Amino acid sequence: MTVGLFIPCYVDQFYPNAGIATLQLLEKLGVNVVYPENQTCCGQPMANSGYEHLTGKCDELFVDNFSSFDYIVAPSGSCTLHVKEHLHAHQYPEKAKHIRSHIYELVEFLTDVLKVDKLPARFPHKVGVHQSCHGQRGLKLSQMTELVEPFFSKPLQLLNMVEGIELVPLDRTDECCGFGGTFCVAEEAVSVKMGKDRVADHIRHGAEYITGADMSCLMHMEGILRREKSNVKVLHIAEILNAG
Amino acid sequence: MNSEQKEHAGLAETFNKDEDRVNWHDETLWWIRQKRDKSAHNIPEWETLRNTASAIKNHVLSNLHNYLVEFEANAKANGIIVHWAANAQEHNQIVHGILKEHGITQMVKSKSMLTEECHLNEYLAQQGVDVIDSDLGERIVQLAKEPPSHIVLPCIHKKKEEIGEIFHENLGTPAGVSDPQVLTETARQHLRETFLTRKVALTGVNFAIAETGDFVVCTNEGNADMGAHLSDVHIACMGIEKLIPKRRHLAIFLRLLTRSATGQPITTYSSHFRKPRPGQQMHLVLVDNGRSTQLGRPDFRNSLKCIRCGACMNTCPVYRRSGGHSYHSAIAGPIGSILAPNLDMRQYADLPFASTLCGSCSNVCPVKIDIHDQLYKWRQVIVKEGYGNKAKGVGLKVMNWTLSSPGAYHTAGKLGRAVMRIAPFAVNNPLNPWYKHREMPQAPKESFGEWYKKNRK
Question: Which pTM does this prediction carry?
Fold first, then answer.
């Protein structure tokens, strides 16, 4: 099995450690991973702003880079969901279809494809888990509080394998952090207020770290934490699962 | 208001100047969302109910013509006078025509979002007709000369002290009184007189049953009944999408409506109207006002399944922190944001962007409207039709060009990070909306791609 590693653009540029942890974790679990160097972005920032019709070239580039792999894995629920729902290539519809049905967000790849049941990880800290909306409500990484359905959580399933970790409860377990792509600047006031409220929930419950499967939400919350001069840090879930 | 002030982002920013009020508004509505959750979780077959309601409404939309004809025939046979209005203006003229016919200049109204959508109160005021809204929340915003901020809880944006002040100014309660019981009793006394002296009562319609020609009005205060039963003329106004095929389908919707809206098992009053009592006239106005157009848009037609419970507003993290008035539309929140562009794409071009697309709205919707997917689709339509934000468009086109070329992307990334490290003031300044209340991410020396080249090749 060969996995094409998709590192979303902002993770590549600002959070290389999340990418490195993803790669090392997959390698640790015996997966053959290749990172296609000509990759850029999934096109989501344009599409969510109403410019899906301009993302043709981004989509073609994505197909060129990833159509030859058995699976494509990305440390981001949001980018994965975008590819799953909106990747199109007029010249190669079959290749695009293969990618759409074989792209996985890291957590679901570990639980559903690799069926990981133990991890050699250790992280003796108090951690709050942020459920990113696109991962949760889009990819169904965990049950949503709105629905009358049985509970499950793929991120918690993995985090519970980490030695020494203490997961803190939250008052609102799956409320949006307010990042929302270009929403974070177009609706700056509401975006920031949502972020402040989310961060406060984690701090109130004693979290030392906030983690999640989407670095974009964490980047937004980190911006607020650092402005508030808080000691609470953000870490991508791959960095915790790869720790120790 | 100029057009710039009428954008959601600007109105929301103003609302956010008072953070304590935002916290209060957010917590009040979150409490209602929690009541909804508790109530829904008490019904093991909740998701089946949602699926069934959605299927019935879908079926109605696919057969709307037939059900409207069936409903009209049955309503007429019951003695109801049926009117058809193509748009808001026709609706308002029909209502005014009925009032004129009876020489009436005063009318009592029980909450109807459709008349808000049609701006009936303003129209009738211009014609010299005095309308009194009889539902407490609606009456409060009417006295405050404001539109409702929520379809179920019209004055949820007002604190009880502010309501006390409005009552002091308008209804003569002593200054400083804010005890809800005292205020409610004052409103009750004041409205009692209104009910007894008004000859015409207007109500909305929650459900209209094609099979029988009945219509059902759901209220908590009983004002629809009070108005309708004491009046000589009852006018009921409804959007053409309010139909359900059979009487037995009603139970499904009544179980969902209030549990979704406020967490109550059912409204205090579910009033069934079939025919006028002897000596009374009963009119029913069926209103299109853009609904046929929406029905003709495949991506958006199922927004017409909406039963106006307001659950999407209570759960929406953006609505809770921006207030209903920031949507500058009769129906606020997520559902308003997918309905309004159909009525006027230019005026409401901002609304589909007033969302993070978190998807909570679609999950609480009792008739399973894919609200967040429709918000995404409206964004595509609005940009293609040329109503998008121009400045944002330029930025996104540059971004798109960069991200479409690996060379440009690698150069821009390297350059951008270097600038952020060497000259942080280039991004850490007031021109950057991110930086206003957030630190920028720390730019690493090496991107993941650069690290990979060194370490894995």
Answer: 0.96
pLDDT tens-digit series, residues B271-313: 999 999 999 999 999 999 999 999 999 999 999 999 999 999 9
Phi-psi region of A41 (alpha: psi -120 to 50; beta: other; left: phi over 0): beta
Residues of B in contact with A223 (CB under 8 A): 434, 438-441
Q: Domain range holding A168?
A: 126-241
Q: Which residue range(s) make up the domain with B428?
A: 396-455
Of B321, B399, B434, the CB nearest to A223: B434
Digit-coded pLDDT (tens) for B314-355: 999 999 999 999 999 999 999 999 999 999 999 999 999 999
A135 and A220, same domain (yes or no): yes
Q: Are B257 and B267 in contact (CB under 8 A)?
A: yes
Q: What is the 3-state secondary structure (H, E, C) of chain A?
A: CEEEECCCHHHHHHCHHHHHHHHHHHHHCCCEEECCCCCCCCCHHHHHHHHHHHCHHHHHHHHHHHCCCCEEEECEHHHHHHHHHHCCCCCCHHHHHHHHHHEEEHHHHHHHHCCCCCCCCECCCEEEECCCHHHHHHCCCECCCCCCCCCCEHHHHHHCCCECCEECCCCCCCCCCCCCCCHHHHCHHHHHHHHHHHHHHHHHCCCCEEEECEHHHHHHHHHHHHHCCCCCEEEEHHHHHCCC
Indicate the number of domains in chain A: 2
Asked if residue A81 belongs to a domain, the reply is yes
**Whether complex ipTM tops 0.90:** yes
Indicate if A224 and A130 belong to the same structural domain: yes
Report how many domains make up chain B: 2
Do B139 and B280 share a domain, yes or no?
yes
Q: Which residues between 296 and 325 in chain B have a beta carbon less than 8 angstroms from any beta carbon of chain A?
A: 315, 317-318, 321-322
